Amino acid sequence: MENKTQEEASTIKVSSLTCIDLANPNFQQSAVSLKQACLDCGFFYVTNHGISEELKDEAFEQSKKFFALPLEEKMKVLRNEKHRGYSPVLDQILDPENQVDGDYKESFFIGIEVVLPGWRATMEKYHQEALRVCKAIARLLALALDLDTNYFDKPEMLGNPIAVMRLLRYEGMSDPLKGIFGCGAHSDYGMLTLLATDSVTGLQICKDKDVKPRKWEYVPSIKGAYIVNLGDLLERWSNGIFKSTLHRVLGNGQDRYSIPFFIEPSHDCLVECLPTCQSENNLPKYPAIKCSTFLTQRYQQSHVNLSIYKQP
């Protein structure tokens, strides 16, 4: 575990993030604002997204009902080798250098093909709406990267995407100096994440992951808005022009619920430097890699082996 004096940088500051209005008819103006937000820190809000508060509230209600079940019931839908299903507390450790245990959270991964029967109406509707919003953001990202608006709509990219929603419940009190976190510091693996949170404070971002000591800022929840952040695959695609941003969650003793929606290109998509992000003086920094290979590596690095849950 690294010297904890590095983790004593102020976490009092509340971050001020750009807000992108998805209903703005001036698409170019929105793309310019989005590009600046991506260059600044890779986190921003979106409003006028078209997802009703009623649908979001119902998704949170269904999430709370699931996590209120006895552990033995939740373990009946334990995650599989594709990481769809239930992950118990401490199942994932995202920042092993700074964590003494795994994350103090439990989660349920829902893919397009995996929905518990009792949730189908709500979760399928929410999944469809979140996917629609992510594709709209991806079109703005394409413009921000000097690509055609529909560049990412190709079948091998977001025409046939990996799109997963995750229900999360954080518990307990975090203590960074003791290596105890609701969720350890990490960047997301995929292209982008659409995040819905409740009103309980906890999410923090580090705008510059290369500067030590790290400086953490809280990201407040804004009613009617979603938080969006960029992932590692987009950093690779953009040749490092757009950065995936470190973030973590500190628990304050209250239960905290969130629903992140992750979108990645298709399993077989070869993620390599975009044509507008390279030149003779700016060669590709990352080797090409198949999306499924990259994601599998990252998931395996951060989750405990499923064999520990098997009965002797």
UniProtKB/TrEMBL annotation:
It comes from the Eukaryota. The keyword Oxidoreductase applies. It holds the Pfam family 2OG-FeII_Oxy. PANTHER family: 2-OXOGLUTARATE (2OG) AND FE(II)-DEPENDENT OXYGENASE SUPERFAMILY PROTEIN, OXIDOREDUCTASE, 2OG-FE II OXYGENASE FAMILY PROTEIN. GO terms for molecular function: dioxygenase activity; metal ion binding. It comes from Arabidopsis thaliana (Mouse-ear cress). Belongs to the iron/ascorbate-dependent oxidoreductase family. The keyword Iron applies. Keywords: Iron, Metal-binding, Oxidoreductase. Residues 161-265 form the Fe2OG dioxygenase domain. This is Fe2OG dioxygenase domain-containing protein. InterPro entries: DIOX_N (IPR026992), IPNS-like_FE2OG_OXY (IPR044861), IPNS-like_sf (IPR027443), Oxoglu/Fe-dep_dioxygenase_dom (IPR005123).
